[in-house]
Amino acid sequence: MSLITPYIANSLLKQIDQSTSTSEEIGSELGSEAKADGKDSQAEQEDGDLECPAKRQKLISAPRRFPEPTSDEQLAEASRPPPLVEHSKNTRKCDKWAMSTFREWMSQRNERCKDRPDELCPEDILETGEPETLSKWLSLFIIEARKQDGRKYPSSSLHSILSALQRIMRRSNTRQFNIFELQDARFQQLHRTMANVFEALQKEDHSSLREIRSIKVITSEEEALLWQRGILGDTSPVSLVRSVFFLNGKNFFLGGGKEHRDLRLSQFTRKGDHWEFIANRSKNVRLGGANVRQENRVFRQYPSPAAGRTCHFYLLDLYFSKLPPSAKQKDVFYYTPVHHLSTNPNQPWWYTDHPIGWNRLDRFVKDMFQEAGIAPKTNHCLKLTGLSQNLVSKVVNVTPGTED
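and the corresponding structure tokens:
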């Protein structure tokens, strides 16, 4: 056991005295800081109490977040209906035609049903009819609607009429529902009727198309009727362009509307006693498993005195002489006839410089035969007629031309 010497004992007593004094100093310092913090908090609270009325006054005097209450007049102005959309000329024309057709159907139906009040269509059905009632009468309309000649409208025309009636009802600002909305059960009868009627019309259209395709060749009797009835001829711009179209298709073996649309004036050249026509390149064909490119064929069309005014050579001469210079610069073959020629018979140009539209060219032969009252044919019949009858007047198929 070790002994504590006097020197060690004195050192320990001094360390204990120093630790005690240090603890008292730290305690006194902490107490002073706590008192100071308390005074600061009290001062801040007193300052906040003094500043609170000032803050409230500042908020009261600041600009207001929201404006003054809106008046009834301002609300009415803000909620007025949007301005009517200005439709195009064609849309307005379509709306007028649809409304006229619907009104005429209503008038004739009510005249026939005047002894049966329950079957009379209300004259204000488009303005005031309830959706279910409107659905019923529109369904009856698309079932009974007919053209001026009594034939049925195609499904596309019926849909256009219904779309026009929808626009008319919406413009009245009282008929804001959509008759084509499939989720609207109020028009379920109309939707089912449209589906059934349109499907039946499409089947009839396909049946008519099959009939047209089965009648392929244009007989000599049918062609003679076209000339006799003035559908083809050289006395007017319309008959002349039809004649050139007809003979181009038959003598140069041109089929559908696209082959006629692709024609250019530059493909025709007057060379002395004949017209030379360079056909467009044919499509590639498969021969023996390989692709073979067919070159351009060249046709020569000579005058035929026996044909008289139906001669292809003569009609080409006349057609080219009636085209204005501006049309020849555009290098399209078929141009729109001048319709006011009768008021100025001495006018040198029979055609404008506006090409005939593609859709109109596609139905050229069909329109000719309908106007003549003959069983319908298509543009393809011209090519088939030329190939099957081999009646190409003075046309010689010479050596294929070289590529450009």
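(Above: one complete record from the training split.) The radius of gyration is 46 Å.
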